[in-house]
């Protein structure tokens, strides 16, 4: 009963929320429109239509221009002005194209000016050995330079990071592929073994009973393991890890060392004195004082 | 006693000087210059044109630091200018400025007027008779900005490049002439240097005059004798400052006189700000309205009774 009530409440609430969401959406979209309008106005601050009552005294302007302009005999060298054709109208809000337009204007202008000055035989650029005060001070230029260097360094670092990231990604992929391949190989080999066994059973192998004994360890998918934790060259129970034999010339007297290596130092004594396969195979200490081998050698 | 004597002496001395000092002829490198020689030269039929432009550069009080730096940059760029103290920006500033220009024996004036600590207006005036223009300055970047990496000689004469649309209308023509006179460094000015290593760009885009300043750089080994190849390799590096001038009005006199031109598209920044404020004020009212509308809508169209609501009730 209570649950049903709650559910119904929930449903109602959801509906309400939906409705209110709708309302919000509408208002938001309106706001967005407004903000767009604002931004447009901020970007382009001007009246949509020219004001009607704006004065424009064409004759007055031209007259003033005539009054103020330099006399006719002013040469180009006095003015140093250049008019450059603008190829196409420039979009103001596109920073890049605008700056490019200014740059090309300046470049064309300098080329024209250079040709003119060259034909007049006037100096143009400053010679290398002409040192004079510059507009920006040396300390300021130092700052500019250091900033450029920092920017370059940052860019290089970012590049390196990006490369490392990519390499990591690639290596991960390769690793995954390798693992997959390995797994596949393993599966294949196991299957082939199974197949072989089946075939053998079907063909009626003579030692059918023995076949069951021939359980291969890797059939279970377990890798081969070291059967025991016996270390070669170390007696069982030697806690020094066989190092006692080769102990460096430390503080211990030599005799003690020898005795330690012979009888062991620490650890269980009992198992150390037992024979193991290694000790049995070790014939180093056997028949040392035997004259027989010597005699044999002599005879030879 | 001693004091008194000193006083009398000091008073006497200037009097003596006044008595003694006759009007001296001007001294030149080669000796004394006679006045008689000077006069016929001026009245010659075709005197050689010599540009003697001097520009007074000042700003208003309470200018903000960015615009002050812009002014200082302009001072650096114009070796033929004189910088003066700040001027109170009152309604009578025109008269004081005219006086100042005359006092400093300048022929034109650049006045940076800052209002409300955020809007920069630039007055460009020819004095005493010439026209004057009032601009609104936008998009200001000073030379100190580190992204502008160029540098050039202080006082080398700039090349002035104008976009071709300056010749379209008479007011643009007038502005072009004013700009060439004010921003061009006079030839053989004593502070100018004999080489050209920077370019000014004046370009009209969107009815605004955009200003840029570039350094001309040519690979070093070729700078002594530039061949054609050197010309191709020429690159420009921006030095700054940057600004954008929006002409508001052109007056016939210097800092006053009848209006010759009025920008029909101009809206003052104050108006823009007030409009924005009004818009912002409207948002809350709209919200309240939307809420009431929603409520009315809900009342008019009530939800249907859910027939399954009572289903699980026992």
TrEMBL record, chain A:
Bias class Basic and acidic residues marks the residues at 155-172, 178-194, 219-228
Residue ranges, compositional bias (Basic residues): 246-256
| TM stretches of this protein | none
Using the UniProt record, give the first listed, main subcellular location. Answer: nucleus
Listed GO cellular component terms?
A: nuclear periphery; nucleolus; preribosome, large subunit precursor
What keywords are assigned to this protein?
Coiled coil, Nucleus, Ribosome biogenesis
User: Which residue intervals make up region (Disordered)?
Assistant: 1-56, 155-300
InterPro entries of this UniProt entry?
Ebp2
Subcellular location field: Nucleus, Nucleolus
Q: Which domain of life is it from?
A: Eukaryota
Note whether Coiled coil occurs among the keywords.
yes
Composition bias, Acidic residues: 12-43
GO biological processes: ribosomal large subunit biogenesis; rRNA processing
Protein family: Belongs to the EBP2 family.
> Could you tell me what this protein is called?
Putative eukaryotic rRNA processing
From TrEMBL, chain B:
Name recorded for this polypeptide: Putative ribosome biogenesis protein BRX1
UniProtKB keywords? Nucleus, Ribosome biogenesis
Q: Which SUPFAM superfamilies match?
A: Class II aaRS ABD-related
| Protein family per UniProt | Belongs to the BRX1 family.
Recorded GO molecular functions are:
rRNA binding
| GO BP term, example | ribosomal large subunit assembly
> Where do Basic and acidic residues bias regions lie?
8-47
Q: Where is the Brix domain?
A: 53-256
Superkingdom of the organism of origin:
Eukaryota
Chain residue ranges for the region called Disordered: 1-47
What Pfam families would the database entry show? Brix
Task: Enumerate the PANTHER family for this protein.
Answer: RIBOSOME BIOGENESIS PROTEIN BRIX (PTHR13634), RIBOSOME BIOGENESIS PROTEIN BRX1 HOMOLOG (PTHR13634:SF0)
Q: Which GO terms describe its cellular component?
A: nucleolus
Q: Which organism is it from?
A: Rosa chinensis (China rose)
Query: According to its UniProt record, where is this protein mainly located?
Result: nucleus
InterPro entries documented for this protein:
Brix, BRX1
Subcellular localization is given as: Nucleus, Nucleolus
